[in-house]
Amino acid sequence: MYGGYVGKMLRVDLSTGKTTTINTFDYVPTYIGGIGLGYRLLWEETSEKTTEWSPENPLIFASGPLCGTPVPTSGRAEVIGLGPQGYPKPWATVAGFGGDFGPKMKFAGYDAIIVTGKAESPKYLYVSQNSVEIRDGAFLWGMITYTTQDALVCQTRR
Predict the structure, then answer these.
(1) Which CATH class is domain 8-120?
(2) Each residue of 54-67: pLDDT tens digit?
(3) pTM (two decimals)
């Protein structure tokens, strides 16, 4: 980790099922933190024709340089994309959240995850230090949140 960043971001295209990595250091330190990095990625991933309902509209999860360190409140992460609150004009939207997602994303080796496209069937993204997989999520369809979480924990322990 250099300067609080692990050095790569994950790009996932659900339409093609392909994943690629992007060098974080092409963006930092010019764009600092999850919000700065996320807004820059949103700018690059969208055009004036992208709407909040477009498959091209990215869902970006980003963390800052202190995420995963012992610094108080450093476990925060951001989710960025075009949101429908400004309909008929899409607005850039950001929301911060806590918990262990941000640090786990860092420990898996990514400063950000960018998801685009539209899968033909329900999918979920499995990310670990060793692999990235777009897995079939049909068995999760119709479950409530807590049941889904339990099912995913059981699925990853296999």
Answers:
(1) alpha beta
(2) 999 999 999 999 99
(3) 0.93
